[in-house]
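Example S7 (structure tokens).
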């Protein structure tokens, strides 16, 4: 586990408190003693209002409304083609909605993206084959330093690599790593930025089932230490339940919200939780929502 220093971007899991509506909020008590830290938001809020998206005649998203609180871990769960990537790209300022609006901390996603306030973990790790693991993990930091956009709070790449079990691999090259290890480097690369919003697009989709389970356990642990807001996209029910504070279920195309489920399971989440009847019960409810959204 990493040591949390005052004002750090990491916090012990116990600091993720839960309110009655099932939302988990970043309380950052250290900020109370450090006014300068309080003014620098470590988690972002998202407001998605009436967002639709069409590609020519193809309607990808029906109107979507979704609010995400600062520090919340929210998963968008939906079948393939339901518009999950489209929604994530719009929230990340990489694409425009056809109608409706999105704000990140009250501003447009473009502003948030330009200010390096959004970290993105893509479906494939997209590591540069000629750079070492350490250099790949530092890639975004190097780019941002060149553009003068350095963030004040971030965990070091060395710490993060150790946290994901890659401390001995900083000098290795991507081709020497398994798929799961490469995706862990991609997680570190995004997290090292210390951005207040992390967007993740099915980062474990290409992994085998066992590695995938390990990765969701790792991600839950990392997210419990993060003070950032996380918007995660997946078609895996188990992944959504294990990681999230809330799961938003999308229908088949055009994607609309068929239900939102608060995941009222204790944190920190441990792997054994997946054998718990409470876990199965939530999985069953989510499966029901997915089937309803698919018109079955
Ligand atoms: P998901 O991520 O849930 O699998 P996507 O958001 O990728 O779904 O896609 C939703 C729908 O929009 C799909 O039918 C897809 O083919 C279509 N689509 C996505 N991006 C584009 C694009 N740039 N041009 C045309 N169609 C697109
Ligand atoms: Mg997708």
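Recovered sequence:
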């Amino acid at each position: 586990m990493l040591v949390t220093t005052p004002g750090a971007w990491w916090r012990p899991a116990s600091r993720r408190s839960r309110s009655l509506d099932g939302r988990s909020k970043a309380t950052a008590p250290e900020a109370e003693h450090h006014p300068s830290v309080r003014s620098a938001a470590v988690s972002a809020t998202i407001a998605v209002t009436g967002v639709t998206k069409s590609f020519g005649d193809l309607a990808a998203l029906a109107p979507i409304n979704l609010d995400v609180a600062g520090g919340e871990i929210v998963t968008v769960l939906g079948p393939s083609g339901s518009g999950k990537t489209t929604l994530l790209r719009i929230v990340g300022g990489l694409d425009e909605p056809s109608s409706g609006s999105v704000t990140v901390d009250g501003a447009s996603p473009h502003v948030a993206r330009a200010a390096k306030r959004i970290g993105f973990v893509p479906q494939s790790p997209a590591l540069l084959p000629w750079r070492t693991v350490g250099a790949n993990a530092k890639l975004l930091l190097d780019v941002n330093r060149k553009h003068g956009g350095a963030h004040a709070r971030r965990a070091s790449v060395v710490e993060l690599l150790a946290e994901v079990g890659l401390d001995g691999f900083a000098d290795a090259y991507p081709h020497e790593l398994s798929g799961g290890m490469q995706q862990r480097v991609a997680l570190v690369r995004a997290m090292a930025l210390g951005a207040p919003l992390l967007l993740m697009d099915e980062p474990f989709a290409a992994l085998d089932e066992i590695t995938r389970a390990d990765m969701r356990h790792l991600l839950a642990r990392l997210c419990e230490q993060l003070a950032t807001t996380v918007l995660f996209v997946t078609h895996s029910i188990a992944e959504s339940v294990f990681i999230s504070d809330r799961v938003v279920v999308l229908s088949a195309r055009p994607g609309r919200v068929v239900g939102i489920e608060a995941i009222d399971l204790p944190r920190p989440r441990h792997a054994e939780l997946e054998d718990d009847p409470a876990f199965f019960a939530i999985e069953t409810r989510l499966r029901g929502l997915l089937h309803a959204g698919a018109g079955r």
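Notes on this example. The chain has eleven helices and eleven strands.
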